[in-house]
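User: Show me sequence and structure for the first protein, then do the same for the second.

Assistant: Starting with the first protein.
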Amino acid sequence: MPLKPEFAPAKINLTLEILGRRSDGYHELRSLVAFAADAGDRLTLTSDAPALTKVEGLFANALGHANLVDATVETLTRILPNVILGGLTLEKNLPVAAGIGGGSADAAAALRLLSAAHPEIAGLDLTVIARTLGADVPVCLRSRSAIMTGIGETIVDFELPGEIFAILANPLIEVPDNKTAEVFRLLRAQPLPADATSERPPVLSSIGELIRYAATRGNSLEAPARELFPQVGAMLSELAKLPRCRLAQLSGAGPTCFALFDTQQAASLGVRILKASWPQWWVAATRLI
């Protein structure tokens, strides 16, 4: 019998600051992230089905054979080899390798769903397991706005100062398997200063302050992403000129971009305009959480 589906919302980097390259080769970051209440994948568990992952949905074929849901199942099976997990169905609605954390969101949804179904898994420290699956999986496990630092492992809750809506847009272009590594290579980040200090989370009391903060901090990966994907510049230009758009920026390493709006009506209008002008793009409107 299938259990209630678990939603795997898209993750949007409202800001993404790369502070420097660490001695271990990783990049120190600071990012304000939010999640899409209305745009994401869905995961369903059938408890009496074989332990296989079935993938369906608009972007099922783009996912390929390896995915983080399978990695999550394999990890849990190693930890609890006697637990019969059941079969998972992933409805892949988000573009793959898009800069909106789709794979990480799927892994986090699998952890939540399997934890709800199995008391043995509920007793585990899911955050520790999430860290072994990917840098973004812990924040996706929460799926609420937050400030991420380190390489993503340090997470501080952040309350959005009001309702805000977004359009997500992706040009559906071919993306290399090493996209993120290539974007970071083009960034050519300097070594992290030895005296680098942490920063207190921002205190933002209005949507206007949030947008000013996001605009000021920006996304350090935008310039190298534009170099790798020239379409990003055109997308940002189209998003920025939509009626009542407050801000347009890149999410993650791209190529997905987002635009922010004060109202759902403005975001919905923007989606209609983009779909009419750019029917080849994937476009979605959402409230941020």
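Switching to the second protein now.
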Amino acid sequence: MFDSPPLAGPEFSPLVNFPELGRLRGAATGRDWPTVRAYVSELDDPDMRATAGRIVSETPGAEEFLTGVTRRDKGDVMARVLLAGTLIHVGWSIRTGATANQVSADQFTRFFGYLRRAEKLLIDVCAEDPRNALAWLHRLTTARGLQLGASETRRRYERVAEHHPHFYSAQAQLLQKLCPKWGGTWQEAHGFANECAAAAPPGSLSPLLVAEAHLEHWADRDGPSYDLNSPAAQRELTAAVHQTVMADGFAGDFHWIYAHGLFALVFSLGEHREKAAWHFQVLGNRGSEMPWNRIDGDPVAAYKRHRRAALGRG
């Protein structure tokens, strides 16, 4: 009897895993605004549009490119929203993901400056187009970064939820604000995640929030140890799997790799490797930096380590 060969990969690049996003990045790199605008505009699903917007915002040179577009056409709402997303990305890159006591005063000054520039653009867009999901999503991020408080963040979420009640990306932003590291409580975080999951139609992304809340709780190094193997946690996680990736009609679009990776991780951390194994099998050699970077500075190594434990190889 021979051992199974090690698995290759994983491939973490969304530009490879989703070739259409690779083409979008190519258009943004080439400063082909008509192609960028057409592609993002044609995405009706707000979560898909949010991912496409992130691909544009993370393109080297995007700030200069989109600033030029907005100067040529001040009325182009899409250009202003994508520029705001780019400013947020640049600002957060300056701040980094470090805890506040590890961020310098200069970093905070520059970070706040970028977020205020983004906020100025977004206030105007939301006044012109109150249904603009991507603009409100960015305003949730600026509210958290600019420390505008829980009530203002919640108000912004309620505005976008009026028109997009199951907008997972917006829900994920509010969930972050409800975690203790941003001034919330675990009761609020878990409560909101379960509320969104209960209201979500089968096959939607919102129940992923349940797994994200448990992962955030587990990762809270300043709090008491958190047992992902508890009966209550396992019941909620198993229900979330059945509501999302195992539900009829689940497509996941640009989020399906992340969804399976998230469940693979939380089941692995809870030592339910047999449950994690199925998600790794679905993924094959694909993966994404999130959520593995939540537990290790080398997300590829973390993925491979847990995949090896679940599958017995690679």
